[in-house]
Amino acid sequence: MPRAILALALILAAASAHADGGIGQTRIKELQALVEQDCGSCHGLSRQGGLGSPLTPDALAGKPAEALAFAILDGRPGTPMPPWRGLVSESEAEWIARMLKGEADNVR
Hints:
The protein is mainly α. The chain is built from 5 helices and no strands.
């Protein structure tokens, strides 16, 4: 019986890791704070736009999450958008992009 419980726990853990891209809940909260505060300083605290363009699901519709993750990681030359590579990993940038598009799990 204990082996069955352990197997079930491992399956549930793997499913949970897949749902959030393998990013733990603590880091997800940190990434959400980063988006709210750091991204919000240019894109607006409600992400409706400001110095930077809007980051709402409607504004990002039709834009591939991979392209958004690239912009998060490497910035946008010729604009005030800085690179965040080194502060966020590729998988975290992809999670942020999906979260902004309303596609990520664990969005508060």
